[in-house]
Request: fold
Amino acid sequence: MRQRSNSSFRAAQSDDIDHAKSVGVLQSTNHGPHFGLVKTGSETWSCAWSPDGLYFAWSSGNRKVHLVPWNQSKQCLVRDDPYDTEGRRCDQPARVLDCGDYVWSLDIGTGHSYPSRKGQSSLWRRFSFSDEIILAVGLQKGHIKLWDCRTGQLLMELLDHKDIVRNLHFAPDHSLLLVSASRDGTLKLWDLNDDGNMMKTLRGDAKWVNGCAWSPDATMLAGVGNFKSVIIWDMKLKTIVRKLVGHLHDVSACKFSPDGALLATASFDTRVIIWDPYIGDILLQLHHLYPPPSPIFAGGANDHYVRGLSVSCDGLHLSTVAEDGRKKSEFPAIIIVAS
Reply:
């Protein structure tokens, strides 16, 4: 994981991996009384950067989220203490947020209060945001909690989902619109400029919605789930414009390229597919197994489920996370790498 600057990632260089080095390990110190049996501290499957690179959040297990301010000494990043290892006071020590439920998804967004949208009255707003940095946390029982990154204060709780909130994303246009994907089979659009009111429920053909992604201009939304589901939504009309057909198993994650020209989807069928989201054509298929498995094998328990993916900020590189049978770390941890 690359350390961010306060502005943005620089373009990736071909020798970055050779020069990368670890600057610290973020690790939960409390693994729960029954860690060896029920693994209550194993929820380290989510992490997020703030858009400006000032904060990093990770689900550290035991229903907690570590919120780390990134613009200070390395010792302050890995300690839940107001002082670093040399006795110097940290400007803002890492916070541990008790979410009260198992954490499944995270995202950090920024935005401003805008004039009331059509049909809204500014007189009845309870919350007003001005250059806020907001952490959204999706929980197992379907709740979404919103925290102020600067103060650690719980701002509000969004209630409407009936099952696990599997994915969360703030709109990239800083409009304070938040979309959530849930195992109740829905995507929900929340307007934080309207006190977090749920403004629209989007439903496709998946029983479980595993992931979602905004296009860079916030005009399209991709949603993926089980039953091989990949759906593109027009976010102005809030309607389905396209269903992408090609995967052979449940689809786990999706990302747009930085210019919005491509959509990448990861699936349990061992593949990542690169699509043209505007016409629905398959442009490229990337395989975690070679030669590619038969459709029957790919659509079953193939032991090579692709669980997640990420696209570099220059749009030239793609990384994936897959089940390859290797032994996993016994204790949850996040390793921070700088280059």
Summary: The chain has a mean pLDDT of 82.
